[in-house]
Amino acid sequence: MNETLKRIVDHVIAGRIPSVQEAVRTALDEGEEPESILHEALIRAMTEVGQLYEDGEYFVPEMLAAAQAMKTGLNELRPLLGDAEMEAAGRVVTGTVKGDLHDIGKNLVTMMLEGAGFNVVDMGTDVSPDEFVEAVQSHDAKLVGMSALLTTTMEAMESTIKTLREAGLGDTVKVMVGGAPLTAAYAAEIGADGYAPDANQAVKLAKKLIG
Amino acid sequence: MHVSSVYALRQHLGLDEPGEPVKVTNIYQMLGEIRPDLAEALGVDVIPLPRPKNSFGIDNRDRKEWTTPNGTPVLVPGGFNTDPEPDGYILMYPQGDTEAAPSGRMPNGGYYFDAIERQPPLDDEALKVEDNLEEFGPLSEEELDFYRREAERLYTETDMAIVANMGGTGFGDVAHVPGVQLKDPQGIRSVEEWYLSLVKRPDFVRELFERQCATALNNLERFHEAIGDRVVALFVSGTDFGGQENLLIAPRTYRELFKPFHRRINDWIHEHTSWKSFMHTDGSVSRLLPDFVEAGFDILNPVQWTAKGMNPTELKERFGAEFTFWGAGIDTQKTLPFGTPDEIREEVRRQIETFGPGGGFVFASVHNVQAEVPVENLLALFEAFRAYGRYPLGDL
Description:
The complex is a heterodimer. Chain A is an alpha/beta fold.
């Protein structure tokens, strides 16, 4: 890997936004393909960030900083990347379920998914089952990521899965869930395809489900 | 405990006529008042020192009736906005001022409020610590008088242990960062930007904490003059350092930015008062427990033993001599709302058996009892506590 790409990786890992922007521009000036900057520098850096989280070196602030830096780099490349490249890893719809406004975890998952190259449609908070269905249909998403923090709202996940099935999307879209009161057992019980306890594992799960 | 669960209990125990509203003591989390009759029925012997204003800066002293979206009759402060928006959301305004931008919202059919973030555009060149200090001013004489009277009243009228919270002694609590009581908050006000600031602007955060700490130490002295040693513990910090699976921030971040200020507050308390220092942090925090001990905290709450690395037996063995565990009694994410009464009784017995021996345990649920908990589950919780929660612990 050339020096500039290495620098991009280091800057993303350290969350240095202006430096990432500058290094991405330099790499383009040096004739580097946008696709290789994306994969060999930006996505690769976020994979390392995920590893640092798993190793207990990185925590929420460091992940947020890296994800922001990655996004800055991605925005530089976006106009230059072909549609096929932008869609390569698949489209994901994320949101917190009906009645739940707690979105810190969902935002982190969204950023880490984007960091891994997924095209994410973030529906925000308090997303009703019908809104999830509409988003999946209009964006042709392959995966839904639902989040709930509350014992009083987690039941909305089950109704959302039911609504997705009733809309005939049961076979075309996978569902992953997360949030403080959730467990793998509960996810299985309500018919989700997977459960992730944190943002890093959400990325791994997404890759397994639709990657 | 959520006000709807308090209402359900009061009704079931025949303490009130049907429809009798329950006072909301914390409007952000919509917690219901545990009055002496309910406390006695449940075996509760701790009471919080009331505060003159709630987290939205709305005066707590005048009250009006309201019915929550799930149909619970409640008493809320006069400045509490009860008019739903067209989409069914209830908005809350800082200091009850509907001319200001709303700072909190309860979703249609929801149970409590969440902050509406009002992050002004950030320019690092122009960022001043004063912007994030607006809410950390000196206590007014009026507030001190209120605390003095309330502490005296509770101390003479009840036999309960009083816990106080004067605000401003905890640092960097993301529940407070949005400044929901402020009409036009400046500085860093979004939770995401706050977390980022811990790694991107550590000098700013340190200076902010330095200034906040100086004000808090001043307030502590005056607060202590007002209420004396009538309270057993001071709620010092409510900042969450753990999530379900892991710490939220790195141990080095805690040690460099938070710990020195915790230490200063706790040292002052121990030098000048008989109070114990109370710390609340959710989640998986076992890696930081030795630091919390060194920082001078006496009480750890809510002891979320279902989080990763928080094994109850290990916690008691390793930290039982240092901490009073306040919480741990029943899991509120799964067992209490969704378990059977037998499962609840068994968990209560087991937790008392683990944390009770040798003292240093205040039985409480892990975090607030949420809404929509079956009343038979609540009764099982308190029955089991009454059955097992007395010293000598005997044969559990």
